[in-house]
Amino acid sequence: MCHNKRMETQEVSAEVVDPGQSFSWQASEFIHHQKTASWYMVLGVIAFALVAAAIITQQWISIAVFATMTAAVVVYASKEPRILNYRLDNHGVTIDNKPNAYSKFKSYSVHKDTGWHMIDLDPTQRFAPRVSIIFDTEDLDKITAILDTKMPRVDREPDWIEKLTRSIRF
Questions:
Q1: According to the model, what pLDDT value does residue 61 have?
Q2: How many domains would you assign to the chain?
Q3: What domain range includes position 122?
Q4: Please, which residues bridge with residue 98 across strands?
Q5: Which residues, 6+ apart, have CB-to-CB distance to 11 below 8 Å?
Q6: Handedness of CA 6, 10, 15, 16 (dihedral sign)
Q7: Can you name the residues that pair with 5 across neighbouring β-strands?
Q8: Fewer Cβ close by (within 10 Å): the C or N end of the chain?
Q9: In order along the chain (170 residues), what is the average pLDDT of each group of 10 residues?
Q10: Amino acid 70: pLDDT
Q11: How far apart are CA 166 and CA 170, in angstroms?
């Protein structure tokens, strides 16, 4: 489920972004898929099998790790996304009043899905996580016009973890 609401828009030229121009919108912090009871049952069966295997092989610490991981997955899978305020301007990307300068990112990539798009901003720091921004499909040109003036677009294929989480609707 993706909640999007445009707050303000201004025409954006693909060549130059005037200092006063910006684009703001509201969207979910992540895409949330409702989980059915069978989804949780499959998770429970997998967790039970892992714990059983750990008991058989006498991997006592693994039992605690599997139980903790299962609890963390249940908590995160049940979490509802917050609606965040996003803003692009000449200074950087602001997400819920937290500014991020463009210099923190080396490139961006666009991922298309049904009804929404997501941009991943790749950080310049080696172990920093990617920053993901969700937006309506109709806003793609406005957002990429601003980002194109600030950093290169390097579209990439989703890695195996991203493919896995999409396929299990996590």
A1: 95
A2: 2
A3: 4-31+83-167
A4: 95
A5: 21
A6: negative
A7: 26
A8: N
A9: 42 42 83 84 94 94 94 90 89 91 92 76 90 86 89 84 70
A10: 95
A11: 6
